[in-house]
Specification:
This is 4-diphosphocytidyl-2-C-methyl-D-erythritol kinase. The protein has helices spanning 66-78, 101-116, 123-131, 137-142, 176-180, 210-216, 218-227, 249-257, 275-283, and strands at residues 3-20, 26-46, 51-54, 84-90, 146-149, 154-157, 164-168, 233-235, 242-246, 265-271. It has 284 residues and is α+β, with helices and mostly antiparallel strands. The protein has a single domain (1-284), classed as Ribosomal Protein S5, domain 2, CATH 3.30.230. Strand 3, helix 1 (66-78) and strand 4 (84-90) form a beta-alpha-beta unit. It is globular. The two termini are 14 Å apart. Residues 12, 15, 24-26, 28, 30, 98, 103, 134-136, 151-152, 176-177, 180, 237-238 line the site of 4-diphosphocytidyl-2-C-methyl-D-erythritol.
Length: 284
């Protein structure tokens, strides 16, 4: 049977860097919330035992695509030949945007194929496998908005307000590894000791990558300057996307409709339960 599942985007409502591990990875404190907007994956049975994926993403070799890598991890975990599957990807999320498109595709593949192949793997095991693919994959596997620590794998579920967002994608792709290797990055923000009750207080919470990203990419700074006329505007992840929060859809659309020509992005709602998990629950 064919299975179609969403791969939602995420925002980092704030992102603090509190230190660096001996292996070079950065210790973070961040608040993840999902968005209703996202990619979509369709899994269809095929004869034989191959996993195929279409369309390919320009510049990403098929075997490096996080969807194929997630499928390979599950095949290895099962340790036996599994039925063939064709995966169709509807890509809507910009790459290098800090909204987790690749990580979410990987999580949807892990949960989707676990269901499709009836592997019966637990969410804990799928989150462990996901962490091998990227620091952002576990939150997408677990499916609830969360305060994250460590490199993003220690998750405390929480419920920030489900506001509306204007998300702008400046015309640049930002490489996460490159930003984390920048000399001038703030790496010593004092840790928050309890999971925050986030009310969008811009002065208490920030994104520690924002200053450096705005310095390196003037188009990101320009987007932030435009959106911040309407309220606090912030970077997500290591960029490039900038988002602003609004209490209603009509207010978000009003701002979006006033954008100058050349600004691309979307309006969407923040949700604390992942649309992926909502869809999987409906199937059970
Ligand atoms: C910035 C965030 O998007 C916040 O949610 C994530 O922490 C990044 O997660 P991601 O895109 O899945 O990143 P990964 O593919 O795991 O890492 C890419 C590269 O960024 C650097 N990296 C990543 C995460 C982290 N906590 N510290 C790091 O220093 C590492 O050099 C790594 O090789
Ligand atoms: N299915 C996929 N979708 C998007 N990118 C993929 C995929 N598979 C591999 N990649 C690679 O991963 C890189 C990061 O893509 P992604 O969309 O996750 O960026 P991002 O939004 O900056 O993510 P993050 O917030 O996790 O840093 C891409 O530039 C691409 O080379």
């Amino acid at each position: 049977m064919t299975l179609t599942l969403p791969a939602p985007a995420k925002l980092n409502l704030f992102l603090h860097i509190i230190g660096r591990r001996p292996d070079g990875y950065h210790e973070l404190q961040t608040l993840f919330q999902f968005l209703e907007h996202g990619d979509e994956l369709t899994f269809s049975p095929t004869s034989g035992s191959r996993v195929t994926l279409e369309p390919a993403i320009d510049g990403v070799p098929q075997e490096n695509n996080l969807i194929m890598r997630a499928a390979r991890l599950l095949q290895a975990e099962a340790g036996r030949e599994l039925p063939g599957v064709h995966i169709h990807l509807t890509k809507r999320l910009p790459m290098g945007g800090g909204i987790g498109g690749g990580s979410s595709d990987a999580a949807t593949t892990l949960l989707g194929l676990n269901h499709f192949w009836q592997l019966g793997l637990s969410i804990d095991r799928l989150a462990e496998l996901g962490l091998q693919l990227g620091a952002d994959v576990p939150v997408f596997v677990r499916g609830h908005a969360a305060f994250a620590e460590g490199i993003g794998e220690k998750l405390t579920p929480c419920d920030p307000p489900e506001d509306w967002y204007v998300v702008i994608k400046p015309d640049c792709n930002i490489n996460t590894g490159m930003i984390f290797s920048e000399e001038g990055l703030t790496r010593n923000t004092p840790p928050i000791t309890i999971a925050p009750a986030f009310e969008g207080d811009a002065s208490r919470y920030r994104n520690d990558c924002e200053d450096i990203v705005c310095k390196l990419y003037p188009e990101v700074e320009k987007s932030r300057d435009w959106l911040s006329q309407f309220g606090p505007a912030r970077l997500t992840g290591t960029g490039a996307c900038i988002f602003g929060r609004f209490p209603t859809e009509s207010k978000a659309l009003e701002v979006w409709d006033s954008r100058p020509s050349g600004i691309t992005g979307f309006v969407t709602r923040g949700v604390n339960s992942s649309p992926l998990h909502t869809k999987l629950t409906e199937l059970d």
